[in-house]
Amino acid sequence: MDTRTSGRNRKYALQGPWEALSGVLSCLKEPFMFPLDDLRNASMSEVLGRVAYRLIVQDYRGDPSPYDRPAEAMLDLSHYLSARGWAVLATWVRAYAAQWNLYRTVGEIRSGIINRARCGQSWRHVAFDGYKGTRGDDPRVTNRGVISRRPGKGGR
Description:
Radius of gyration: 25 Å
Helix content: 40-55%
Oligomer: single chain
Shape: globular
Strand order of the largest sheet: 1-2
Order of helices and strands: EEHHHHHHEE
Structural class: mainly alpha
C-alpha cells in the first residue's frame, strides 16, 4: 500500500487495481469535460442574463405553483424586483418572459441570450431577440430614417 500526503496533511492510499483504474478513467474523461464558464471576459449582458436565469430558477424552487403560467410568473417576479429597486434585473427577467413560449424552455432562452451576448450584439438584441430584428446597430437610424453623413448641398 502506497501512502502519500496531499493538501492539508491528509493521507490517502492507493489500495488496489480498482482505485488505479478509476484514476486512469478520470484522467481520460477530463479532456472531454466542458470547463466551467469563465466570466472574466463576459459582457454585462451575458452576466445579467445569467443572473436573471438564476433568479427565475430560485423563484420557481421557492414556490412552483405560479409557474403554471410561466410568462405571468416571470412578469410578477419582474414587478417584484422593480419595486425593490432592481430595475435592470427586472428588465432581464421581462426578457425571459417575452421570449417564453410552449416550445422553448427557460434554459433554451438562456442559451440564446448567452450566444447573442458572446457574438457581441447590443443588449437590446441580446435581451429581446425579435425586437426590431431587421434593424442593425447603426446609430444613424432614427424615427425619420437614416441621417446622411454627407455634407449638405452647399458642401464639397
